[in-house]
Specification:
Glutamine Phosphoribosylpyrophosphate, subunit 1, domain 1; Rossmann fold; six-stranded antiparallel beta sheet; alpha/beta; binds fructose -6-phosphate; 612 residues; 35% helix; globular; 19 helices; eight-stranded antiparallel beta sheet
Length: 612
C-alpha cells in the first residue's frame, strides 16, 4: 500500500526520507519518488521499481536539503511507471504533492481542466488533479490553497504538499487515509505509518478525518475542517519496529482481518451510488449489447479465490439471470469446456500471477472469449492479459492466508452481478436499490463483527477447537461455500484437518465420523433454508457432536439447538457471506495461535503460486 514520509529539520532530509520509505517497503509498492527544495526550485525524482532504484536515480544530491517529501506507490489508477509515481507537480513546477487514497471524482475534474486547457496532465493517476487544484487556488498561502482545493474533492486522502514559494513548510490533510505527525527537537515528521518514524521519535500526533496541518522544523499547527486551530493530544508510541509494521497486531493476518471494513469500503468506492440505487462499472468498457447477449459465464480461480467464485455462481445467477459454471483453474483446461460465442470467462486472482489461473485466461482468449479479471494487483500478468479488469482495492496482502482480498473479491462479484443485472434488465429497480443499500451498510456491520467482545467470544471457542485434530464446517445454500472457505483457512494455518459439507450431505456418509465432542461449525445464516439446516444440526447433536453456530440476530431458534453460538447483525441472505466469513477467519486464526502454528507463513505454502 502507498507510503508517505515527510521531513522538516536540520538533518539531511533525503537520508531521513529514504530511510523512512525503506521502513515502509514491507507494505508492498511498485514505484517511489521524492520532492525537495534546492535553491529556489523544487526537484522531483521518481522511479518505477524499488526505493533502491530511486536512490540510483537520485545519485549524489547536495547535503543541505532540510525539507522534503517521499512516497512509495502501490498502483491503483494507472500502471507502475515513472510518470505515475508520486510526487506529482503543478504546471508551474512550484508545488509538489504526494497522496494515499482514491479521488472519486477525478475524471470530472480532469475533464474540466482538459477542456479549459488550464493544466497539462503527465500521468494516468487520480492524484494528479489534486496538485493542479492546489495550484488553481494558490493565493500566497499553501494551507489555504489546500483547504479550498479539497472542497472540490470527493474521496479518500492522506496527502502532503510542499511549495518552493513557502520553503520549509509542509501542508497535510487527511480523510479516510492515515497520517501521523512525528514530533522531534528542532525537527518534525509526517508519515502514513509509524514504522517510518520510530528511528527518530516516539512522540506523535494522529490526524483525524477532516483535519489539516502545517508543519515546519519548529512548529506543528493542526486545524479542523473549518480552519479552526485544534489542540491535539501527544501520544507516546511504545511499539517496537516489528509490532509497528503490523499496526500493533501480533500477525499480518490479524491486521488484514481487521482492515476488512476499510478494504470493503475502498472496493465499493466510486462504484456504488446509494442515492440512485445503482452500481456503475463503466470502467469495464463492456458494451450494453455485449452484456445483453451473454448467455453463460465461467468463473475460474484457485483456492480461496475459487470459493469466492462458488459464491459468484449463486450471486450472478440470481441477480443477473445468467447461468454460471465455476471451475478450479488447474482442472479447467483438461475438461475441455464447450466454449461458444456470447460466453464470458471471469478469472479471480489476488496476486494476478497464479499460473493455473493464467493458463485458464489464455485458453479462453485463444478461443476468442472475452475475459474479465478480478484482481488485487495493478500491472499483474492477469490484469495485463485480460480484456476487462476490476481491481479489488484491498491493498497488499502479506499473510499467506487470504482474508481481506477474499472479502473484496466477493464484493467485486456483487458489483459485477448488479451491474450486469441492470444492463440486462434482469433485476427489479427496487431490489437493486435495496441490495446497494445493503452493500453500503457492510463496512459498519463488519466493524460490529470485529468488535472486541465478538473477537473474545471466538477466541474462547478456539481453546476447545484447538485440542481436536479434526473438525467439520457445514452449511446450506450460500453458507456452503463459506463453510468451504472456513475449512480451508482452518487447515491452512492451524493444521487441523477440516472438512466442509453441504449440511444436507452429512447423512450420506460423513455422519459416520461424528463422535462425542467433535467440533462442527454450522453456518446458519440463510433464512430460506434455516429449518432444514436446523434439522441437520439435530443430526449432529444426536451423535454427540459439539455444534458452534454462526447465525444472524433474530434467528433465535438456533440458540436452543447448539452448544455455542455467534450472532451476525441482521442481513439479507444474499449478502450474509460477507459477514459470515469473518468469524471463520478469526476461528482459524485463534486456533492456530492456540496450537502455536506459524500464522503468517504456514508450512509448505507460498503467497503467490506461479507454477502449475
Ligand atoms: C488461501 C489462499 C490461496 C489462494 C490461491 C489463489 O488462503 O490464499 O488458496 O487463494 O493460491 O491465489 P490468487 O488469488 O493469488 O490467484
Amino acid at each position: 500500500m502507498c507510503g508517505i514520509v515527510g521531513y522538516a529539520g536540520n538533518k539531511e532530509a533525503l537520508a531521513v526520507i529514504i530511510d523512512g520509505l525503506k521502513k515502509l517497503e514491507y507494505r508492498g509498492y511498485d514505484s517511489a519518488g521524492v520532492a525537495f527544495q534546492k535553491g529556489n526550485d523544487l526537484v522531483i525524482t521518481k522511479a518505477a521499481g524499488s526505493v533502491a532504484s530511486l536512490e540510483t536515480a537520485l545519485g549524489e544530491q547536495n547535503s543541505s536539503i532540510n525539507v522534503g517529501i517521499g512516497h512509495t506507490r502501490w498502483a491503483t489508477h494507472g500502471r507502475p511507471t515513472d510518470e505515475n509515481a508520486h510526487p506529482h507537480s503543478s504546471c508551474c513546477g512550484k508545488i509538489a504533492l504526494i497522496h494515499n487514497g482514491i479521488i472519486e471524482n477525478y475524471r470530472a475534474i480532469r475533464q474540466r481542466m482538459t477542456s479549459e486547457e488550464s493544466h497539462k496532465f503527465i500521468s494516468e493517476t487520480d492524484t494528479e488533479v489534486l496538485v493542479h487544484l492546489v495550484e488553481e487556488n494558490y493565493e500566497g498561502d499553501l494551507l489555504q490553497a489546500v483547504r479550498t482545493a479539497l472542497k472540490d474533492v470527493k474521496g479518500s486522502y492522506g496527502l502532503v504538499v510542499i511549495s518552493s514559494a513557502e520553503p520549509g513548510r509542509m501542508i497535510c490533510a487527511r480523510q479516510d487515509s492515515p497520517l501521523i505527525i512525528g514530533l522531534g527537537e528542532g525537527e518534525n515528521f509526517i508519515a502514513s505509518d509509524i514504522p517510518a518514524l520510530l528511528a527518530h521519535t516516539r512522540r506523535t500526533i494522529v490526524l483525524e478525518d477532516g483535519e489539516f496541518a502545517s508543519i515546519t522544523m519548529d512548529k506543528v499547527e493542526v486545524f479542523d475542517h473549518k480552519g479552526q486551530p485544534v489542540e491535539k493530544e501527544v501520544l507516546e508510541i511504545t511499539w517496537d519496529i516489528e509490532a509497528a509494521e503490523k499496526g500493533g497486531y501480533e500477525h499480518f493476518m490479524l491486521k488484514e482481518i481487521m482492515e476488512q471494513p476499510t478494504a470493503v469500503k475502498e472496493t465499493m468506492r466510486q462504484r456504488i451510488d446509494v442515492e440512485k440505487g445503482r452500481v456503475d462499472l463503466s470502467e469495464l468498457a463492456f458494451t450494453s449489447s455485449q452484456l445483453e447477449s451473454l448467455d453463460k459465464v465461467y468463473i475460474v480461480a484457485c483456492g480461496t479465490a475459487y470459493h469466492a467464485g462458488l459464491l459468484g455462481k449463486a450471486i450472478i445467477e440470481k441477480l443477473a439471470n445468467l447461468p454460471v459454471e465455476v471451475d478450479v483453474a488447474s482442472e479447467f483446461r483438461y475438461r475441455e469446456p464447450l466454449f461458444k460465442k456470447n460466453q464470458l470467462v471471469i478469472v479471480i486472482s489476488q496476486s494476478g500471477e497464479t499460473a493455473d489461473t493464467l493458463a485458464a485466461l489464455r485458453l479462453a482468449r485463444q478461443k476468442s472469449l472475452q475475459v474479465l479479471a478480478i484482481t488485487n494487483v495493478v500491472g499483474s500478468t492477469v490484469s495485463r492479459e485480460a480484456d476487462h479488469v476490476l481491481y479489488t482495492w484491498a491493498g497488499p496482502e502479506i499473510a499467506v492466508a487470504s482474508t481481506k482480498a477474499y472479502l473484496t473479491q466477493l464484493i467485486s462479484i456483487y458489483l459485477v452481478a448488479l451491474y450486469f443485472g441492470e444492463v440486462r434488465g434482469a433485476i427489479e429497480k427496487e431490489y437493486l436499490s435495496e441490495i446497494v443499500k445493503g452493500l453500503n451498510r457492510l463496512p459498519s456491520q463488519l466493524k460490529d463483527v470485529l468488535s472486541e467482545e465478538s473477537v473474545n467470544r471466538l477466541k474462547a471457542y478456539c481453546e476447545h477447537l484447538a485440542g481436536w485434530e479434526s473438525a467439520f464446517f457445514v452449511g446450506r445454500n450460500l453458507d456452503y461455500p463459506v463453510a468451504m472457505e472456513g475449512a480451508l483457512k482452518l487447515k491452512e494455518i492451524s493444521y487441523i484437518h477440516a472438512e466442509a459439507y453441504p449440511a444436507g450431505e452429512l447423512k450420506h456418509g460423513p455422519l459416520a465420523l461424528i463422535v462425542e465432542g467433535i467440533p462442527v461449525i454450522a453456518l446458519a445464516t440463510q433464512k430460506a433454508v434455516l429449518d432444514k439446516t436446523l434439522s441437520n444440526i439435530q443430526e449432529v447433536n444426536a451423535r454427540g457432536g459439539a455444534v458452534f453456530a454462526i447465525t444472524q440476530e433474530g434467528f433465535e431458534d438456533v440458540s436452543r439447538q447448539v452448544e455455542s453460538i455467534f450472532y451476525l447483525p441482521p442481513i439479507e441472505d444474499i449478502l450474509a457471506p460477507v459477514l459470515s466469513a469473518v468469524p471463520t477467519q478469526l476461528i482459524a486464526y485463534y486456533a492456530a495461535i492456540a496450537r502455536g502454528s506459524s500464522v503468517d507463513k504456514p508450512r509448505n505454502l507460498a503467497k503467490s503460486v506461479t507454477v502449475e
